[in-house]
Amino acid sequence: MNKETSTLKRMVGHQLFMPIISLIIVMLITVVYKSLFGKDGVHLDLTFFQIQITNGHLYGYLIDILNHAGGLVILAIGMTLTVASSAGTDISVGAVSALCAAVCVRVLGRENVVADYSTGVYILAFIAAMLVGALCGVFNGYLVAYLDIQPMVATLILFTAGRGMAQLLVNGYIIYVRKESYKWLGSFFPHIPLPSALIVAMVVAVVMYLVLNKTALGLYIQAVGINKKASHVVGLNSKMIILLTYVFCGWCASINGLIKSSEIASVDANNIGLMMELDAILSVAIGGNSLGGGKFNLFGSIIGAVTIQALSTVLLSMSVESTQVPVFKALLVAAIVVFQSPEIQRWRRNRKARAAAAGKKVA
Amino acid sequence: MKNLITKMSTQAFVIMVTIILFIIMYAAGCVVYADKNFTNIQVFFNLFISNAGLIIISASMTMVMISGGIDISVGSQVALVCMMMCDLVMNKHVPTAAAIAICIVYGIVYGIYAGVMVAYLNIQPFIVGLSGMFFARGMTAVINTGMLSIADKTFDVLAKTKIMIPIDFLAKVNKRGMKIYPNLYPSVIIAFLVLVIMFVMLKYTKFGRAIYAIGGNEQSALLMGLNVKKTKFLVYLLDGAIVALGSVVYCMNTCGGFVAQAQGLEMDAIAAAVIGGTSLMGGVGNVFGTLLGVMTKATIEALVSFQGSLSSWWAKIIIATLLAFFIILQSIITRIKAKARD
Lengths: 363, 342
What we know:
The complex is a heterodimer.
Chain A: H1 3-13, H2 17-37, E1 51-54, E2 57-60, H3 61-86, H4 93-108, E3 113-114, H5 119-146, H6 151-169, E4 175-177, H7 196-214, H8 217-226, H9 228-234, H10 238-263, E5 266-267, H11 276-286, H12 298-317, H13 325-340, H14 342-362
Parallel strand pairs in A: 3-4
Antiparallel strand pairs in A: 1-2, 4-5
Chain B: H1 2-7, H2 10-32, H3 41-66, H4 74-91, H5 96-120, H6 125-143, E1 148-149, H7 153-160, E2 163-164, E3 172-173, E4 179-180, E5 183-184, H8 186-204, H9 206-216, H10 218-223, H11 228-254, E6 256-257, H12 265-275, H13 287-307, H14 313-341
Antiparallel strand pairs in B: 1-6, 2-5, 3-4
Helix pairs in contact in B: 2-13, 3-8, 3-11, 3-12, 3-13, 4-5, 4-6, 4-11, 4-12, 5-6, 5-11, 8-9, 8-11, 9-11, 12-13, 12-14, 13-14
């Protein structure tokens, strides 16, 4: 075997190979679609990759995707940890996002159109929202870690009740915020060319990368995910670690809620974070992480999140209704879990082993 | 109290708590809203009428939960089937009976998908349900993003025929001295038929007992010589068909379809099952307990709507709280029992 093929093999075998390839495929499909069905007839259309600077901010299709992906990237990071530690997903993230956004806007003002607030109140509102997100995480985590309830049933409670509480907070209205600074988090901070959501996502990603890889926490989470009892016997506080991952996931959901509500400068309890739990789970799965818990790769989930956002944006630009998009994602998630399923994996391993045995005989 | 818990089965204890809760709530309603006719026997029958579809779906959920699985796609399936019914009957002019058949065939196809995924490919039921949930919700939007309603003669006969209950004891005498009997719709009859059939199937057939055995301990069921995979597959197939039937019954009550319909119904169904004594771990459960769960949920909704000024979201929040309470209750009882055994 020469060196080149082994490098290729290592690349193909790498966990990040599939996520990156799927991202590239989505981009290629967009370029082909735009080239074939563009306004000016069939010609190579590369507007997808164009990035321009207007008013000191970066603009372009790619930037747009990255900007909208910011919230999802943060959610995906939180979801990766819950999946890794408890082999279960937190399906309440969408509802918790809506709840936190509602809390934020209620701290800002009691009217249906919030016109003005002071900076202090603004910071207080953010802290309140984050606290509520973390509290939701404590609730989920307590049920999962200490009462041994399947994660999806435990989080199902907030999945419906969270949106209900958000509705009560905003009295069923859509609350508008008419102050420029509220929009910053969802678009651009003044004088900074990169979208704010992207910056926040990058900060969260880097901090989490350092925390997970430079301390033993990442290893602990993996150990708990692979075998809870064994890690308890080794001396890890398994329950506390699972609880912490849920609290972190709840906090991530609150940040996502703040970003999403800032994007539209309003709080719509019905639609903020709607169906984002599937997006987050899908990001984790596309990133090559097993939904069965244990080992995880943060970077894979991040690329997965960007891929999902690219897919949504592309589908929407092909004039698919936003309510119809879940069909494609559901099919995608079904395909990925089938591919990841233990039975299919065993079948592939057996086939490989048989092929190897046959190869030996020939030699 | 501890003595009582250790002596009774978990299921019996939970059902006891539920019955007490139900009676207290209903009695409270009768006292507080006496002026608004809460005591009228028709109010009680209306609980069944407005929840006939949910009764069927929750019964199916109970069966799946007994087998150790779960189906969180039911809410979206209801939306899709309602939309399919409306679209088929109103826009495609398919006869009602054929439309119902098509919906149930769809349910079976989805059931086969879920069954293959869970039983033969060993994928967590949650993930399968989640994919089904978003698929169905999206497909509803693909059929129609707006709101459709259904107005068809045959369908109306099925949905709106009033069946009087000719029991003098329950009748009310109006001003002209005529007896007004409480009435039910055919949907309730269908729901009860399904309940009885499922009860008999779970309790007395080989297939039903196999479901309990698998939910109790899959490994032992396998060692006993049960065909675990086939049974699980059949459970999901049957679940698909029954949920589709339940959705058609649900449609008889709402007579319409829109994308956001029945959002959160999966939690109602799971809550009904858990409140009715079904174990989240599998192996324990009873469809009539689930009926009690649905009635509890229906009473909460009735109380909220009789109050008048409360947002309907309160009903959802209370039910979620109740679900959390019962989950914690189950967990505590299991712990006390484990301690008593040691």
